[in-house]
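Re: [ENG-882] Designed sequences occasionally contain unexpected residues at chain ends

Forwarding the minimal case from QA. Structure tokens:
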């Protein structure tokens, strides 16, 4: 069996450093290796003029930058991740395309919530924040987005959003497996409104059942979803009558890990990333893992 690989996108920014430190800790818990990857490209036009091909010194500078970032992360890492195999790599090309290509063979892709290159200001490319959005929508591997200031420690809890959809079931499976590796409890949260649950059997065109019936339906849906993944009592269940994103964001703290499916019951096919997942990724105080569908194209242009 080949070793798992945690792929971390780096760009020299503080959030990139936080993502790399967090990735090393996750790799230690999962028995995985870490690859720190910096993708870059040189814009051959400047003020309307065509400039020469990619200068060798820029490629060398990119390589030295990512090597230095990895070296610092390895020097600062906690003792628990001291034995994690780690290496760095640079690749020329659009950042999202390069990361998505390498993520095909990775078990987890880790990105900072926002990026701003500190050691490659002359390289032209999207900030890691916009790259993260593309990767969240296209990656075939789960994507972890790490906020600024995240501590590289095992989470207090693994909180997972559940709504009865196939996407949330995949997220729950990933969360339970990860929680077993890090030795932390799992909390399954179903945050519901009348518009996000199937109607109770007593509902009619002119009759809206009382909230107690909707709540009972939500609890049954939560029980049914959890029972497909874990034994009774192994996962704490939390039912909230709140908008989904608000309920999840109110539940997690900075020392938790939030796990979501890419798109749940409320998603529209035309959206690349579900609105709940996007809101949580952008505003959660803790790292967020978004679990993708089983298979799909990784081309950002499709």
């Amino acid at each position: 069996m080949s070793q798992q690989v945690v792929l971390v996108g780096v760009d020299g920014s503080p959030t990139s450093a936080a993502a790399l430190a967090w990735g090393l800790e996750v790799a230690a818990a999962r028995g995985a290796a870490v690859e720190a990857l910096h993708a870059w490209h040189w814009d051959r036009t400047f003020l309307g003029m065509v400039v020469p091909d990619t200068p060798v010194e820029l490629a060398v500078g990119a390589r030295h930058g990512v090597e230095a970032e990895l070296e610092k992360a390895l020097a600062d890492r906690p003792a628990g991740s001291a034995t994690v195999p780690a290496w760095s790599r640079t690749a020329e090309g659009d950042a999202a395309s390069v990361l998505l290509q390498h993520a095909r063979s990775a078990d987890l892709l880790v990105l900072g919530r926002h990026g701003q290159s500190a050691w490659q200001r002359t390289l032209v490319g999207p900030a890691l924040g916009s790259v993260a959005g593309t990767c969240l929508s296209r990656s075939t591997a789960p994507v972890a987005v790490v906020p600024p200031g995240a501590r590289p420690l095992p989470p207090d809890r693994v909180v997972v959003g559940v709504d009865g959809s196939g996407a949330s079931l995949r997220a729950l499976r990933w969360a339970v497996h990860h929680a077993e590796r890090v030795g932390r409890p799992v909390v399954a949260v179903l945050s519901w409104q009348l518009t996000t649950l199937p109607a109770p059997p007593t509902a009619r065109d002119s009759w809206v059942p009382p909230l107690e019936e909707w709540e009972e339906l939500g609890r049954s849906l939560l029980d049914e979803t959890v029972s497909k993944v874990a034994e009774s009592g192994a996962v704490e269940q939390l039912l909230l009558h709140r908008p989904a994103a608000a309920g999840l964001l109110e539940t997690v703290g900075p020392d938790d890990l939030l796990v979501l499916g890419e798109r749940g019951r409320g998603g529209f096919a035309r959206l690349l990333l579900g609105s709940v997942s996007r809101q949580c990724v952008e505003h959660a105080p803790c790292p967020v893992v978004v679990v993708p569908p089983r298979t799909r194209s990784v081309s950002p242009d499709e």
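QA comment: On inspection the terminal residues look reasonable. The CA atoms of residues 46 and 67 lie 29 Å apart. Proposing we downgrade this to a documentation issue.
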